[in-house]
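Customer ticket, subject: "Can you confirm the structure for Replication factor A C-terminal domain-containing protein?"

Message body: Hello, I'm evaluating your service for our small team and ran a test protein. I'd like someone to confirm that this is what the system normally returns, since I don't have a reference to compare against.
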Amino acid sequence: MVELLLTYKLTTTEPIVMLLQCCRARKYQGQVHVSNMFNTTKVILNGTEEVFSDFKSRMAQRCEDGLSFTISSDTSNEGDINSGQIQLVTIEQITRMEEDGKHWVFGEIAGIESHKDWSYVSCVGCNRKVSPNGDTFQCITCNTSDAVLRYKVNVRVVDKMSHASFLLWDRE
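Agent reply: Thanks for trying us out. I re-ran your input and got the following:
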């Protein structure tokens, strides 16, 4: 995913449109962090589906500079995006939210936070981090030693009012 983000950044000046399905926004130490859910989050970057072009058209009508917004919804249905029923909020508005919720986030990736770990060893069954156990690894949730290396990418996302750190996990 890192190579893909870098390629987009080098080949286009337009903002990258990212659709995150089933992710969680949390406020921690005064900053908003958006992370995905194990085995359920779907990430699509600059998709060719009609939902992306429709969304870009609506965004162009709503803001002069085309910068980022967050889409908030209690569902994860593409029909909600296409119908225009989803309320647009800024990242700053997310920082004021007091309850967890399901969110789709549309943002401009300003950079990759490469100072953080990019991988972890996880359980094949539940994708949670495993603990070393001699020459193998042990998942305390599944009680199995089957493990695989998984990747995570920390990116910085901005809109015209604020910024947030996003944590993207792989699941394949």
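A couple of notes from the result: Residues 63-77 have pLDDT under 50 and may be disordered. Helices lie at 2-11, 50-62, 78-83, 91-96. Feel free to reply with more questions.
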